[in-house]
Amino acid sequence: MTRYQRLGVNIDHVATIRNARGGVYPDPVRAAKIAVAAGADGITAHLREDRRHIRDEDIRALSAEISQPLNLEMAATDEMLAIALRHKPHAACIVPEKREERTTEGGLDAAGGREQLAPIVEQLGAAGIRVSLFIEADPKQLDAAVALGAPVVEIHTGRYAELDGAAQHAELDRIVAGAAYAAGVGLECHAGHGLTFDNVGQIAAIESVAELNIGHFLIGEAIFGDLDSTIKRMRALMDNARANALGARSA
Ligand code: PXP
Asked: How many angstroms separate the CA atoms of 217 and 221, rounded?
């Protein structure tokens, strides 16, 4: 188990607040720079088709101004492919997108959407962009990611985050098994969606999960404190969870 797990900070909801009033405040690039200074290993931004938060200009500015890798979350469309190829972010995470949803609901159907996904994964990869597929912890979907040639998967933790008690345990077991399966078939495994101070530990402790992407909670919590200390606390919770898991395994 590698002790260190990367933290990608998603700054979409800084743009949500900005867009509520129009204008330029608060600035997602400023948030990204604070996140990097606080220890974020990367910045994640989702350019949705309806531009409800991040806009094209934000992607341009983030690409130009941040020192850590940019992970562009995008739907598998020709428009988004063209934007990704123009900006060449370090990584592109392909997500399912429905206009009427409030946030990304459920994982991508990599198994059922092979025809649409294959040329997009192929062109992103050929441009040197590290492609990740946001999917459920389901061997069928993980096998499909391998067949598509995606080097990375991000396991959807949204359902785990919403559940509690025995149902949450069962979902955690599914994620743990999925992450092990992903590692077994040679995929780099990330995880994200709905993670908070309270629920991050069990996901951070999963051996093969190399990166977490966290947004909404961090931006929301920063309202009550500040972004710098909120990110540092999340970082510390991840580090503690991994150190404990490592200790338990070697004991
Ligand atoms: N990972 C992916 C692929 C996502 O779509 C999102 C939400 O944009 C996140 C992680 C972050 O989720 P949250 O904002 O709930 O932390």
From this structure: 6
